[in-house]
Amino acid sequence: MPRETNPKIISNGRRYMGNMAVAGVLYSAAVFGGAFAIRNEALPQWAAILAALAPLLPALLMLRAYAIFLNGIDEFQRRIQTDAMLIAAGVVGFGSFAYGFLEEWAGFPHLPLIWVFPALIGIWGLAACVLRLRYK
Amino acid sequence: MRNRLKVLRAERNWSQADLADKLDVSRQSVNAIETGKYDPSLPLAFKIAAVFSLPIEQIFSADEVAQAAE
Amino acid sequence: MSNCSESAGKPAAARLFRDMFGAGMIYLTAVLGAGLAIKGFAPPQWLAALLAVAPIAPALLMLAAQLRYMRALDEFQRGVQSEAVLIAAAVIAFGTLAYGQLEDMAGFPDLSMMWVFPAFCVVWSAATLFVRLRYK
Question: Smallest Cβ distance to A89: which of C85, C99, C115?
Answer without folding.
Answer: C85
